[in-house]
Amino acid sequence: MRRIQVLLCSGTACQSSGSDKVKRALLDELGSHDLLSEVQIVETGCMGPCELGPVLLVYPEGTFYVRVKPDDAAEIVSEHFLKGRPVRRLLWTEGAPQPQEIPFFSRQMKLVLRNCGTIDPEKIEEYIATGGYEALGKVVTLDPAQVIAAVKESGLRGRGGAGFPTGTKWELVRAATGDTKYVICNADEGDPGAFMDRAILEGDPHAVLEGMAIAAYAVGASRGYVYVRAEYPLAIRRLEVALAQARKLGLLGARIFESDFSFDIELRMGAGAFVCGEETALMASIEGRRGEPRPRPPYPATHGLWGKPTLINNVETFANVRHIVLGGAAAFAAVGTEKSKGTKVFALAGKVRNTGLVEVPMGITLRELVFDIGGGVPAGREFKAVQIGGPSGGCLPASLLDTPVDYDSLSRHGAIMGSGGVIVLDDATCMVNMARFFLEFTADESCGKCVPCRVGTQMMLAILNRIVAGEGTDQDLVRLAEIGDMMKNASLCALGQTAPNPVLSTLRYFPEEYRAHIRDRSCPAGVCPNLVRYVVVPEACRGCDACRRACPTGAAQGTAGKAPYRIADELCIRCGACFDACPFGAVKKEPR
Amino acid sequence: MREGTVTKDAIASRHPRSPEALLSLLHDLQTANAGNYLTPDDLALAASHVGLPLSAVRDAATFYSMFSLRPRGRHIVRLCESPNCHLAGAWSALDELRRVLGVDIGGTTPDGQFTLELTSCLGACGVAPVMMVDDEVVGNLTPTRVRETLGRYRGER
Questions:
Q1: Which residues of A touch B66 (CB under 8 A)?
Q2: Which CATH superfamily, name and number, covers A124-332?
């Protein structure tokens, strides 16, 4: 047993902040103090607060260090490991060395993410030591109907976005006729701002594989696929490692746990198509075709991959399964609200102090999520809205901050749980421009197969482009709502059916911003280039002449050395050159 | 693996002769070409290997944004264009990428080293803005970090 264990986050974000260099520096320091036999470094999955990376957690006492640089290694080793004094300057907050004292962690409830950040995801032994594959071992001694009954009783609903009851889905696949059945894990996480599936795959890949194997036993499948997007190379690598290890120990393959149950999993990589997150498109992609959706019914439960009955669940859904089996359905269902059980992982991002991955019980309010865990909007700005559910979701305003986060409450207010991306927006965000951004995304990602989505996204985008350019009319708002309604009802798949949500929800909660763009030709947030005015703040201007030299139209005027300068609005073409050029931040954008 | 002595047939033989191997095979064939693209011969090989008509293979290859039928640079630089990266200032990183590489989005540097592309969310929003160079995710982008990273790749080989 080593005296000290250092858990070093090596998720994608921390790796990109240099966690591998920190590891090498620590190893060098440990070596030079002859401590390699006493201190162990464990590379783990994501711990959550990505922007503070690289982060590391030192056990036995549990000291949490943030923004660790390779140069800090010497001090950590000599002060902390040798003398037992934590390096205070590397703590998240002074006086709170341990995660449980920090609200970001203490308000969370980790079930799915329990192993993320505590075990080495590339060592199956560490997963097994936390009870890994115990659930599978138990399940193969049960009747499949018992397994399905437990999942139904737990109240687990699909974590990919739509929230379909998982047990019911399993039951449908079990009941479908056919000798060959498939289990697919949808790891084509594509929503901008969503990265919970990536973190689970990178931090605890075996939990997903075990969930798939349990599902396969329950529905009677012998073959499974993980369809993962190619943008996640680290997740792919860790899955490959996990699959090889599980096969080697006989936890996948023929006659698992010496039962009659045989099951193996293959990895399939996407190639950059958002629509492949839709289940029928995903299956087309596995079959080697264009990833285009098809009408449902028939549903994959009866006509799935290669026309065979197929169970398709999301990464986080599968990762929940072992906890239902081990902890019992009742314990699982004790967490959450009446119709949304268990926990949900969210990716918190945008204008919020603490960004990263958090797991909370269903039913927590948006306010708790954004302010207690997220720490609120950074100083000097005000909270404006929270965008939840990505391009399929909506923006909820401050007045709805007390909405409980569950499937039904969110959809009642025009947003969706979606896969769990939460983007906090402050008062410097233009809601019209935000909606336009998401529409641009869905218009680009529309596969083009059905008319309502292909043409509808383009038409809505054209209208929004007009509005942000200051050329909108009142009639445009009516048209946006009309087209949005048609797309919701007539599109082939969820991409088109939900694409209008960002527009419709902002129209609903921020109508005055649309009206300001249209009637006053003004962008209240000062974002839309055509609808802002550039002004010089006299007190900040030093008369350096930079703006005048940068201005292509002679609108920035003044004499060097004689502050303040001024910008003649009638000559200004709103190119922003003066804004970029000013070294003193004296040029400001304001609504016209 | 790239530019190795591995023949295309050897690459194909690592994949099952079934349509479900198509995407993986196309990925591998594309990576094996210095220009990070699929040649007409690659498409024909893939078609005969997995047992699909050439038209179906072409149909699939042109659907997915990660496949290219035109030569690209040795390294693919993909800047994330998602809202989190947008809010975090991806555009100043894009300006720097354009300036240093001297090409616009979709362009390849004359020396064949880099192609500049945009990508949908890379899921590393905690360190936005983010780009990916080949398989490496580079976050917290500033103009300096952009220059350093490109310099590092330029120095290789």
A1: 230, 271-272
A2: NADH-ubiquinone oxidoreductase 51kDa subunit (3.40.50.11540)
Query: What's the CATH number for B75-155?
Result: 3.40.30.10
Peptide bond before residue A529 is cis, with ω within 30 degrees of 0 = no
Q: Is B12 on the interface with A (CB under 8 A)?
A: no
Q: Which residue among B18, B66, B139 sits closest to A13, beta carbon to beta carbon?
A: B139
- Looking at the partner chain, which of A17, A274, A441 has a beta carbon nearest the beta carbon of B139? A17
- CA pair distance A135, A322, nearest whole angstrom: 5
Q: Could you say which of 3.40.50.11600, 3.40.50.1000, 3.30.70.20, 3.30.230.10 is the CATH number of the domain covering A529-591? A: 3.30.70.20
Contact between chains at B127 and A273 (C-beta distance less than 8 A): no
pLDDT of residue B5: 57
The answer regarding whether domain A343-426 maps to CATH 3.10.20.600 reads: yes
Judged by CB atoms closer than 8 Å, whether chains meet at A16 and B127 is answered as: yes
The closest CB to that of A271, out of B67, B128, B138, belongs to B67
Pure H helices in A360-430: 366-367, 407-412
Q: What burial class does residue A294 get, using C-beta atoms within 10 Å of its C-beta: 0-12 exposed, 13-18 middle, 19+ buried?
A: middle
Closest chain B residue to A289 measured between Cα atoms? B60
Judged by a CB distance cut-off of 8 A, whether residue A342 touches chain B is no
For chain B, the domains span 8-63, 75-155
For residues B76-91, average pLDDT: 88
pLDDT for position B1: 44
* Partner A contacted by B119 (CB < 8 A): yes
For A534, phi then psi, to 5°, come to -95, 130
Cβ B67–A192 below 8 Å, yes or no? no
Residue pLDDT, tens place only, A120-161 = 999 999 999 999 999 999 999 999 999 999 999 999 999 988
B135 in contact with chain A, both atoms CB, cutoff 8 A: yes
Three-state SS annotation for A302-328: CCCHHHCCEEEEEHHHHHHHHHHHHHC
Q: What is the tens place of the pLDDT at every residue in B106-157? A: 999 999 999 999 998 999 988 999 999 999 999 999 999 999 999 999 986 4
Per residue in A213-272, pLDDT (tens digit) is: 999 999 999 999 999 999 999 999 999 999 999 999 999 999 999 999 999 999 999 999
Per DSSP, the residues of A281-294 read: HHHHHHTTS-----
The answer to whether the CB atoms of B87 and A351 lie below 8 A apart is yes
